[in-house]
Amino acid sequence: MGSTRARIAVDAMGGDNAPAAIVAGALKAREAFDIDVILVGDEEQIKGCINGELPPGVKISHAAQAVAMDDDPIASIRKKPKSSINVAMKLVKQGEADAVVSAGHSGAIMAAAQLKLRRLPGIERAAIGAVLPTVDPTKQVLILDVGANVDCRPSFLDQFAVMGSAYSQWVMGVNNPKVGLLNIGEEDCKGNDLALKTYPLLKANEEINFIGNAEGRDVLSGEFDVVVCDGFAGNVLLKFAEAVGSVLLAILKEEIPRGIRGKAGAVVLKPNLMRIKQRVDHAEHGGGLLLGVAGVCIISHGSSGEDSISSAIRLAKDAVDNRVLEHIARPGEKAEEQAASQKAVAAAVAEAQPEATGSAAG
């Protein structure tokens, strides 16, 4: 993008804490990062969350409707064309924004992204990628899908691996990312039907560095940079990891001794405790990137607060600045060309078969 600042459209009406926490997080991100922010939603409510004039680099795009958390995702997108998530997606579609961040109804966000932005060439299904910490403080692992597709075909997971590798390399800065398939064993003969059929696809895929199956205990080991799975298993894995992080922080708080010695120890340990929080607290990561659609889209937690929204906007900025869509689209275009070539060959063979049969019969 050169010196042009990323323009982030923020769905101010999405999430349990909208619009106050969403607006506060967006303003915090505007101060911390070199970006422009477009707050999308009811203009009067948004202005009510801002003291005084709009800060430089912040503007409001009015949206008269909002999608509620209990709305049907597909129906709400079609019946509420002026909803904040629809308007935000439209800004990206029209080139007025570079990315969308929303903590609203995840199903509605995915529906709006796929209907408004469409999928990238060669991609059958979009996937939500989530970044988790590992035992190695210098490494993180990208898990996908974590909820967009409960049921998957092997080809979906193969494409997830390509998209995840591109994101890991170009946004997370990992050279030749190591890809793993979530499974119940290391051996290639282990797993359910999906895993057994996906393994040979990943092994034969020259676009990725596939190193084998990843058991549950391996996911956070630092051995893998990308782990692919269906959205059902991925969502369970994500929610469990978030719960473990919350429990760990609660245990640390509970176990630090009280009294004078405890207070003195807490002061000494404070920098370490803050680093632990940054590594295990899901709010620090902001949300997941919806990979596979023709636009940068971050889906934040429904309960996101100010800090989580700010982190999500940072995530969107990184994806835009590192041109992740271009790097994902290239393999997708290649896959589409290969599929077209295979169809052409199959058609030619089918067309030639009757002639060959007739000749043999004669």
Distance between the termini: 65 Å
Instruction: Estimate the mean pLDDT confidence.
Output: 85
**How many H/I helices?**
11
Percent in strands? 15-25%
Write the layout of secondary structure elements.
Elements: E1 6-11, H1 20-32, E2 35-41, H2 43-48, E3 58-62, H3 73-79, H4 84-93, E4 99-102, H5 106-117, E5 127-133, E6 140-144, H6 154-170, E7 178-182, H7 193-204, E8 209-214, E9 226-228, H8 231-255, H9 259-280, E10 287-291, E11 296-300, H10 306-321, H11 324-361
Parallel strand pairs: 1-2, 1-4, 2-3, 4-11, 6-9, 7-8, 7-9
Antiparallel strand pairs: 5-6, 5-10, 10-11
What does this protein look like?
- The chain has 362 residues and is an alpha/beta fold.
- It contains 11 helices and 11 strands.
- The protein has helices at 20-32, 43-48, 73-79, 84-93, 106-117, 154-170, 193-204, 231-255, 259-280, 306-321, 324-361; strands at 6-11, 35-41, 58-62, 99-102, 127-133, 140-144, 178-182, 209-214, 226-228, 287-291, 296-300.
- The protein has an 11-stranded mixed beta sheet, with helices on both faces.
- Helix 1 links the parallel strand 1 (6-11) and strand 2.
- Helix 4 packs parallel to helix 5, helix 6 packs across helix 7 (193-204) and helix 6 runs antiparallel to helix 11 (324-361).
- The radius of gyration is 23 Å and the shape is globular.
- The relative contact order is 0.15.
- The model is unreliable at 338-342 and 354-362 (pLDDT under 50).
Overview in brief:
The protein contains 11 helices and 11 strands.
Quick tags:
362 residues, alpha/beta, 11-stranded mixed sheet, 11 helices, 49% helix, globular, disordered C terminus
